[in-house]
Amino acid sequence: KTLVTDLSDPRQGNTVSLERFLGQELRARYLNPEWIDAMLDEGYAGARFVKQVTDNLWGWQVTVPEAIDSAKWQEMYEVYVEDRYELEIHDRMAASNNLEALLGMVQRMQAVIEKQYWNPEPTLRAELERVASSLISEIEARDTAPGNEAAISAPTTSAAPGEPQAQAQTQQPEIVEGRVLETQNQSAQSSTIVPNTALLLLVLLSLALVAAGWARQSQYRWAKR
Q: Residue 195 class from Cβ within 10 Å (0-12 exposed, 13-18 middle, 19+ buried)?
């Protein structure tokens, strides 16, 4: 049994089971129509945050299965999919251009059923399937609507009126200034290597002559002694 310290009242902490704590948190916040209504007023970001509720609940489900019973998923379904409080959840998420959030919640519930953490009635399973298919169709229709073609297709340029299509101007690449690498002529490189090599040999020869002269001079001095 997993226990947590409930500090919702900072003046008096209390140790409760995780199951009880999550139940209180769901009823007070995530299944509260006032909280949901406020989140939906935030548009796209609010809908995304609502979706995270089911993601987090799923995380607890697979981590501490005994803390999440079927009743919690049943309530999530009734509040968000059936719209028990008549908050127009579907329409408001559609207006915020984030039906993907609602689809993600529905698909998460389907995953919970598939993993046998929740065993609802067959009619509920069929309804989840219907809602998921409907949402997918709505999202596809939205993304392929004429008003959204510019957002999902690559920008193209067309010829000016009266000009052939082949002569249409294309977008010029951005010019970036900086150092430029140039290809060197191989023959020019070879010609510079030869003088440099000759100069090096000349220096080495001079050093050798100086060393030889110094050695002879040293031998001569030792001979005089």
A: exposed
Half-sphere exposure for 28 (CA within 13 Å, toward CB):
7
Phi/psi zone of residue 162: left (φ > 0), alpha (ψ -120 to 50 degrees), beta? left
* pTM of the predicted structure, to 2 decimals: 0.63
12 SS3 class: coil
> Which DSSP symbol is given to 9?
S
Spatial CA neighbour of 29 closest among 4, 2, 8: 8
Would you list the DSSP string of 58-119?
HHHHHHSGGG--HHHHHHHIIIIIS-TT---HHHHHHHTT-HHHHHHHHHHHHHHHHTTS--
Q: Do 163 and 157 form a contact (C-beta atoms < 8 A)? A: no
Measured distance CA(156)–CA(164) in Å, rounded: 15
State both tokens at 127: 């309804």
Q: Can you read off the two tokens belonging to residue 29?
A: 């916040």
CA distance 1 to 101: 33
Q: What angle do CA 153, 154, 155 make, to 5 degrees?
A: 115
Q: What is the pLDDT of residues 173-205, one digit of tens each?
A: 556 565 666 666 655 555 544 456 666 667 677
Q: Which residues contact 220 (CB under 8 A, 6 or more apart)?
A: none
pLDDT, the chain, mean: 81
DSSP letters spanning 13-60: -EEEEHHHHHHHHIIIIIT-HHHHHHHHTTTHHHHHHHHHHHHHHHHH
